[in-house]
Amino acid sequence: MGVTERLARVSSRHPWRVLLGWLGAIVVALGLAVTLLPGNLTTNGHVTGNPESAQAERIFSRDFPPDRRGVDELIVVRSPAETVAAPGFRRFVAGLLARAKATGVVHHAAALAASRDRHAVLIGIQRQADVDPLLPVVEQSDGRDGFSVVMTGEGTLDHDFNDLSQHDLKSGELEFGLPAALIVLLVVFGAVVAGLIPLMMAMISIVVALGLCAPIAAGFSLSVFFVNMLTGMGLALGIDYSLFVLSRYREERVAGRAELDSIAVAGATSSRAVLFSGTVFVIALSGMLLVPSNVMKSLAVGAISVAIVSVLAALTLLPALLGLLGDRINSLRLPWLGRNTTGEGRFWGAVVRKVMRRPVVSLVTFGALLLALAVPAVGLKLGASGVSTLPDRLESKQGFDALARDFPQQSSSPALVAVVGDVRSPRARAGIVRLRRELAHDPVFGGGSDLRITSDGQAAAIGVVVAGDKTGARALAAVRRLRSTEIPRAFDGAPVRVLVGGDTADNVDFIDAMNAWLPLVFIYVLGLSFVLLTIVFRSIVVAATSIALNLLSVGAAYGLVILVFLHGYGNGLLGFQRVHAIEAWVPLFLFSVLFGLSMDYQVFLLSRIKERYDQSGSTTEAVTHAVSSTARLITGAALIIVAVFGGFAMGDLVMFQQMGFGVAVALLIDATIIRSVLLPAAMRLLGAWNWYLPRWLEWLPRIEVEAAAREKPVPAAGS
């Protein structure tokens, strides 16, 4: 008796103990989440380790006191009727500053510049506290006495990103993804109670996983977006894993087994498949932990945590619920739905039989289609989505637009150039002068620069404003040019080391890290997946075929994301923005998640094919039977994940639009073209070679994904 079967038997025989244990876990998790998550999440993405931007930041914080002239937020006050010198304009600004200082947020405030038409003034704010109390003051002042008042800056942007991620979580994942998943479950099961159980399992998994991640957030400051990711993956995996186990239980009951025996068989078969699928998913996502990025590590921590909890819930909590409810899970039946629990699907059966009759035509046609969709991925360009991509209703975006209109050379995000060494040497001094002169003539750095030198002459700090969106294409290109061309030319031969820091430089380091680690994560995930599949199916051909087909679906998803978001094909119809680059973390994340999720279905299907092949000895019959008999479950499971990640795509954050759209289209491709056409065609052509394992690998252990039931049930009368 395997571990999963023993867990199922014990849980179903002692359901109240299991339920009390999970109830305790929920209470503890809620307490941890409420106490440790607030204040420990960040919207900043940065490279961990020791990139150039981090080195520059450390030098600035160590050798230079905070600049009293530095600003965190910028407020633009504009009047269409009065000029900045008018008494009414001055009174309004004075009143605004008085109300701002009364919040306790403002450490220092000063007027920095007037617009060319003299109808707007720029106010710099140096904060000493969180920006939240200041935002209502700005919003209430906007429109008063005919004045426009908007604000942007680091704190305002963080606030808006936090609010937008919570809005997208509520409107996309919970208000769209959750109801859509319920509809799919009702169609699959045909009963309200059976449809609600997977949703309840998913919600419990999400709560417990949040509690598990709370201490990690307190110690390492996770990205705020990990909550969105954990919730989305929790809905997808929690529902899918419960769907597989619950469906197997119902199949066994229809076949005539007793309730407890059906739970045990489901534990020995589907629960074991869930355990293996969860393991594959965790391995695929663990590649993201290798990447030196707080965003990637945060998303991986959220996804891996909720995957582990979802597996544990499917192995223990679900059998306990089945032990309590029994056949009452079929309560509140829906007419005409969910009646076919064990038979072959007619539609998919017809499709796969046609494919098996013409495997070469099917393989070439649909393989060429996916390759054509993947071609745009060759032009993959990584970047970052900043304030310019936010909705116009947000304060930071309104402030950014006002800056671009009235003060195009201003920003609250300077580039910080650290010069370390003998900065008083003639060559170093000449280099500083030359660099500042070059910066003054650069349109991106056109706001001038300031210079500070330590008393011992061993370090100098040059601060220069980066105009526009700090993560925009112009800003990123300007910092790259500063590092690669202007600094080496200015300091040629000088006895100093020059480093560039600041938010834009940090984004450059982040994008470069994603570019560097993408192929390494590919190799890591593909290598481990190949080893696991070879062990499970005892065939290097099946393993290689599965990986090749998954790469096809991932490549097609990359191509479609680039066509829609970079080239603008269909973006208006789908409600997406056209942007200058794909979010740097999205391709790597897409690969890891898609490989983990699609491998679930691939393993589930291949295990059924192998089981049937061992019985019949015919690849054609095994593939036809397995595809048509698993179609309902796999299609339903895929549609649930498509619905959940479609909720991501419906949000306003461009990065999550790209990620949600990519996952949704890839899983649609995987559940249709890959599963019903390419895999059957490839296996039909390979024939007996599908199960080839070199003799020198015969020592590999034998692992069954779904253990066969030890005894057959006695068929019910008339069945």
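Above is the first protein from milestone M3; the second protein from the same milestone is given next.
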Amino acid sequence: MIDPKQQRQLLDAVCVIARAAGRAILDVYGREFAVEWKDDRSPLTEADRQAHDIIARGLADLALAAPLLSEESPPQELTERRGWPQFWLVDPLDGTREFLKRNGEFTVNIALVTAHRAVLGTVFAPVLDRIYCGALALGAWRQDGAGAVQPIRVRSTAAAPLRVVGSRSHPSGALADYLAGLGRHTVAPMGSSLKICLVAEGAADIYPRLGPTSEWDTAAAQAILESAGGRMIDTTGQPLRYNAKDDLLNPHFLAFGDAERDWLAPIRNTRESERRH
């Protein structure tokens, strides 16, 4: 295990790396660029590649000798990773669709995964010049630009009406069913892992993700959320784990702050209704 002092040093270094990757992304963002489409129909740009290269070089220079798994990693690393007890899990540009829309809601995500758990993470939003960071042994923080570093914490008692944050680019019927059973609420659309960060800082009560995501989409923000006192669970109530199965897809999940509320109730009620009919 990494002691708190080493976690602090790593977290500071990773924040510097994320900002450097963000600057490269903004350089591409400010001009015309080509878009490629991967086999899964997700977009890929020059910004993704540049950010990946900057992050890979930066992490390789750290004292912690841990391999890197990135959305832009070569296929052989995607296979080798099953034997890694500790590694960096990275999405160099989370929210590429938001990047293409030029709405600013995209992030650089860097997480350290140890024994299937995201223990440290940073999420940097280049357009907002806002960085979130957290480590389980230390807590979680937000910094805007060169401003003061502010500790963040989830809202331990949910607001009334409930404040829901949802995907801007990936709505689903399952989400509509969940919200119908949630009670009085408001919904704020948002892109990328910023949704989880809003829960971590108490600006939202819950982010229900009842559609597909990959592990690099969520690991950094989950580390921040849990460091801020929140939870991220699948629809059976189990915490999300990383590098624990053959594929790198997450189950559907809920990210929330109020641990006393039964956030799974709408899902159970929907399933029961479906069984009766």
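Note on the second protein: The chain has eight helices and 14 strands.
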